[in-house]
Fold each of these.
Amino acid sequence: EAGVAQSPRYKIIEKRQSVAFWCNPISGHATLYWYQQILGQGPKLLIQFQNNGVVDDSQLPKDRFSAERLKGVDSTLKIQPAKLEDSAVYLCASSLAHGGPGGNTIYFGEGSWLTVV
Amino acid sequence: DAKTTQPPSMDCAEGRAANLPCNHSTISGNEYVYWYRQIHSQGPQYIIHGLKNNETNEMASLIITEDRKSSTLILPHATLRDTAVYYCIVRDDSGGSYIPTFGRGTSLIVHP
């Protein structure tokens, strides 16, 4: 079974530039997550989708971050304009939507490493 | 905020058992305990989960106290490749919306 795919793997941009990250979840997974992980910290949830609807985006800095999942499959996370403090790993993850034991196991991609200089 | 607390770091000798504790004193009846680990430069990887019974799989064992306020992840024979950050989270698997929240985890170093 293919895992969660993310690209690009690494990106270096200057502050005030824009960047976009792409994610393809595991086939059949209705729930998709974007996490931000700053060095030395645990992953912090930015946004959670259920199919193409947003479940929670309370920690997404909406003045500069946006995310979409138009067809309920792939997702894109965009940062515009980037700040130095946005340097982090951006992790995409997915899970099955149904409840029950193990139904909500989260599977992560390898992450997209962003450095803002 | 994460609903779990874990020691920031631990170390273990190769070949010995690694016992990683997690405190989740405010856990509710519908919440499962999940463990993940993150090896350097990779995304977190699912290890095991449980509700109230002890669980074992090919990677680890999970021991949950009777009052469910704490749990221990056991790696029975730790290897150097088990060096990673281990995260304990709780989440409701009843099917409703739930926000999975990670803390800082425990950095486990397995030494020769």
Amino acid sequence: AQSVTQLGSHVSVSEGALVLLRCNYSSSVPPYLFWYVQYPNQGLQLLLKYTTGATLVKGINGFEAEFKKSETSFHLTKPSAHMSDAAEYFCAVMTREGAQKLVFGQGTRLTINP
Amino acid sequence: DTEVTQTPKHLVMGMTNKKSLKCEQHMGHRAMYWYKQKAKKPPELMFVYSYEKLSINESVPSRFSPECPNSSLLNLHLHALQPEDSALYLCASSQPPWGPNLETQYFGPGTRLLVL
């Protein structure tokens, strides 16, 4: 069974600093990988996804993530944090066998300090 | 338009009530999903409909009854719920991921349910 581990339930950075949110997956075959963001009292919005091809994926709002098969990781980064980035971030995986089940990590709450 | 709408936004119900949650999308998607999200937890899949047929039921108690009357609409009928069922219920839609193309799941804003 596949699973997702997000290291750090809460990350705090200063405005303008680098944002790094960590995600590791456990799966015998590399799955599809996603990062979603959830703002307070809202649904989930897709930031970016990796399916195949280039391992560095660029998403919305200046975020990007790199798929590293050897490390089973898919960490999310943004060079310069903005106050509007404060939210809950979820890493998720889906198997490649046609299943539609998204399995989410526990989430990381990102706080931005002025 | 990549919008999934959900009504109502908030719902308070007693344990003997019957209520329904509604989800709608007009993106032409043929797969629709219900997720349950408890406070400070990730979403958990409940049901998946593909082409208006139930394709995945994640062993959800029968007091939750999904319905997909057409390709744009998804309902979740609630009956005899327990206080522990209080949560944010999220709907999502996508194209079914048949073949080599993986389609993104688009989420609605959710219905926040409180069971008293």
